[in-house]
Specification:
Elements (H helix, E strand, L loop, with lengths): L17 H18 L3 E3 L11 H26 L2 E4 L16 H11 L4 E6 H7 L3 H8 L3 E6 L16 H11 L5 E3 L7 H4 L1 H9 L13
Parallel strand pairs: 1-2, 2-3, 3-4, 4-5
Length: 217
């Protein structure tokens, strides 16, 4: 994430911070290798304070593409995948550079490396664009990781909000998604109690806790 005390939230698209980005990436790879995690979120970073987003967009994209190509080459040697996550600028972070899956897909196309993927957080995607079914289908070939949270409260999927998660999970299954779904939300209370939605979902699908079929038992 860079220097949080200085207001940074990632470095990959921030002009002038290329050396710091590469050093941080090497450190991230070191930790990922140690814990056996094959995916790393490459954080784009914020538009520098005091600058106009439109005025620096071109330079930031150029920096981002340069750093992502470097990232792809480094991660390829480790058999790892780099992930780009759009973060909404309406609620969560008005200064974050990468805001929509459309922008991320365009960047990925320009970089052109197979080991860079889209980290699609449905919370951010809903706030920026909605149209989740179509977006999931459109960007599915690019998706390397999914994250979930209810909108607008960013709590458990079964908390009050805009998203129908049983439908979304079934859509992901029908699309053939076999990766992890990250619970990127703030529990309303206790973490384990907050996972009650998952136990209920498994039971509604005729599954044991842990996602195994009762019939198979």
């Amino acid at each position: 994430p860079g220097d949080k005390e200085a207001g940074e939230l990632g470095l990959a698209a921030v002009p002038g911070r290329q050396a710091a980005f590469r050093q941080a990436l090497e450190e991230a790879v070191h930790y990922a290798r140690a814990v056996g995690c094959p995916r790393i979120h490459v954080m784009a970073g914020r538009v520098p304070l005091g600058t106009d987003r439109a005025a620096v967009a071109g330079e930031m994209e150029t920096t981002f593409i340069e750093n992502l190509r470097y990232t792809a080459d480094l991660l390829a040697r480790e058999d790892m995948i780099g992930l780009l996550e759009p973060i909404n600028n309406r609620i969560t972070d008005p200064h974050y550079y990468l805001n929509t899956p459309h922008q991320a897909a365009a960047i990925l196309e320009k970089v052109g490396r197979p080991n860079l993927k889209l980290q699609l957080d449905l919370f951010h995607c809903q706030i920026m664009d909605g149209n989740l079914s179509c977006n999931l289908e459109t960007y599915f070939p690019l998706i390397g990781h999914i994250q979930i949270a209810q909108v607008p409260g960013r709590h458990e999927p079964d908390s009050p909000g805009e998203l129908n998660f049983p439908y979304i999970f079934e859509l992901l299954e029908s699309l053939g998604y076999t990766g992890y779904v990250g619970c990127e939300y703030a529990p309303k209370g206790d973490t384990l109690e907050g996972l009650g939605w998952l136990r209920s979902y498994w039971e509604s699908r005729g599954l044991q806790h842990g996602g195994t079929s009762k019939a198979a038992k």
